[in-house]
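Quick log. Single chain, no ligands specified.
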Amino acid sequence: MASWQSGYAADCKSVYLGSTPGLASIFIFHNEMPKINRLFAIVGYAIPMKVDLHTHSTASDGVLAPDELLQLATDNSLDLFAITDHDTIAGYLSVREQAKAIGINLIAGVELSTLWSGIGIHIVGLNFDPTHSAMMKLLQYQTDARMSRTDTILQKLAKIGFEISLSELQSSVGEGVIGRPHIATLMVEKGYVKDTNQAFKKYLGAGKLGDVKNGWVGLSDGVKAIRESGGVAVIAHPNHYNLTRMKLLRLVDDFIGAGGQGIEVISGKQHRDITDKLSAIATDKGLYASIGSDFHRPLSFGVGVGELSPLPDNVTPIWELFDIQ
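-> predicted structure:
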C-alpha cells in the first residue's frame, strides 16, 4: 500500500463513508482517472460501477417515456447508462441534454434488428456518433424495412376482416417505432382478440398469418455501420436465440470477423450457469463483456433499470473501450 500511496497520494481524494460494518470508512479515487473507468477502491474492497447498457423506452416497445427511464437510472444511481431502442435513437436524442444537466453518463445506444444465416439476431450499438452518415443511413433503411413489413401484415389481417389502418397504428404508437406488439394491442382494442397473447398465438407469431419475413440489414452490415460511426457492437442476449453451442460459436466468429467487439454476458435475470458460459466465450474469443437489463416495463418479478449482478472477474468490461470523462 505504501508504494501505491507514494505514487498517487497527491492526485487522490479520500471521502468519509461512515462506520459501515464490514467496510472501511474511506474510499480513494484518482483524480485523473476518467469517471467511466473508476472503481472506488475501498481498503480491502472494490465497489464496481453500476451500469445498464440495454433498456427500452416508448420510442420503441418500452412503456416508459425516455425522461422517465432516465429518472429511473438517476434514482438507481447508475454510473453509466444507455437507452437502446429498436432501430431508433429518438429516445436517446430526446434526453441527452437532460442527462448532461443532471450529471449522468448517458451514451448513444441502439438495438439493431439484423439477419444472420436466416436468423434474426439483435446487435446493440454503443457510444457511437448519432450524426454519422453511416448510422443515419442504416437507421433509415431499418425504418423503411419495418414500415414495409407492417404494411404487409396489415394487408394480410384485412383479408380476414381485421381492419387496422396504418394511420391509426401510427396514431396509437406516436413517435415510437412500430412493431408487432403495437398491432397486437390494437387488435385487442378493436375486439378482434381477447388479449395480446392470443394475437400472437393465433395471428402474429411464428408460422402464423402475420409472420411476415423481415428485410432487416445483414449482421455484418449492421456491425460495420456501428463501427464506422465510432461505436462498439455487442451481441444482445445471446442465450435467447436457442442456438446450439456450435452454432452460437459460429455466430460469434462471424460477428468478430465483421468487426464486433462485445457480447452481453449478463442480460436481465439469468442463471449463473448461463453467465459462466457466456463469460467463458467472451474470454476465449477475446470479446469485451457488456451488461444490460433489457428493461421494457416495471415488473414485480423482472429486473429493474441497473438492478443487475456484477460482471464476473474473468471478463473485461465493454466500457473500457469508452473515452468518457
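The longest strand covers residues 109-116.
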